[in-house]
Amino acid sequence: MKDGFRFESLEIWKRSAEASYRLFTLADHLENEKKFRFSEQLRGASLSITNNIAEGAGSYSKKEFAQFLNYAHRSIFEVANILKLVFPEKCDSPNFQSIFNELEEISRMIHAFRKGLLSSQ
Fold first, then answer.
1. Quick check: 75 and 49 in contact, CB under 8 A?
2. What is the CB neighbour count within 10 angstroms for residue 57?
3. What are the backbone dihedrals phi and psi of residue 2, each rounded to the nearest 5 degrees, phi first?
4. What CA–CA distance (Å, rounded) separates 9 from 27?
5. Tell me, what's the pLDDT at 109?
6. Predicted local distance difference test score (pLDDT) of residue 120
7. How far apart are CA 108 and CA 51, in angstroms?
8. Are 75 and 56 contacting, i.e. CB atoms less than 8 angstroms apart?
9. What is the pLDDT of residues 46-98, one digit of tens each?
10. Which of 39, 43, 48, 50 is nearest to 17 (CA)?
11. Residue 115: phi, psi to the nearest 5?
């Protein structure tokens, strides 16, 4: 595509991609500790956020796009759950609080974007 893909211009996708890079680093850490299943689960849930935004952006209808945003939103909660269960001793650290704050902000952004999308039908 000459001008790129639609999702690349979406702030919700950009922010989610940045958060994913941080989450991939945590997944690498889990892999180094031989916690492969947790690593795989964290990577999958992280990718699901950006993948669903991108897939939804390729939809022909706003209703369908909104459904993919709902999946992305739910994946944020999956990521938070994985982090809280796999790293319980680190969840109060500034680094993890920063990640949780970013996830919460992205969650709000997706919700607002979805709401605006549906109200403009």
1. yes
2. 18
3. -60, -45
4. 27
5. 98
6. 81
7. 18
8. no
9. 999 999 999 999 999 999 999 999 999 999 999 999 999 999 999 999 999 99
10. 50
11. -60, -45
Rounded distance between C-alpha atoms, residue 75 and residue 16, angstroms: 11
End-to-end alpha-carbon separation of the chain, Å? 26
Residue type, 67: Q
Structure tokens at 89: 């001793």
Please give the domain boundaries of the chain with CATH numbers for all domains: 6-119 (1.20.1440.60)
Mapped onto helix, strand or coil, the DSSP state of residue 119 is helix
pLDDT higher than 80, residue 3 = no
From the CB of residue 62, how many other CB atoms can be counted at a distance below 10 Å? 16
Q: What is the Cα Rg of the chain in Å?
A: 15
Ramachandran sector of residue 34 (left: φ over 0; alpha: ψ -120 to 50; beta: rest) = left
54 and 75 in contact (C-beta within 8 Å)? Answer: no
Q: In the structure encoding, which two tokens stand for residue 116, read together?
A: 């605006």
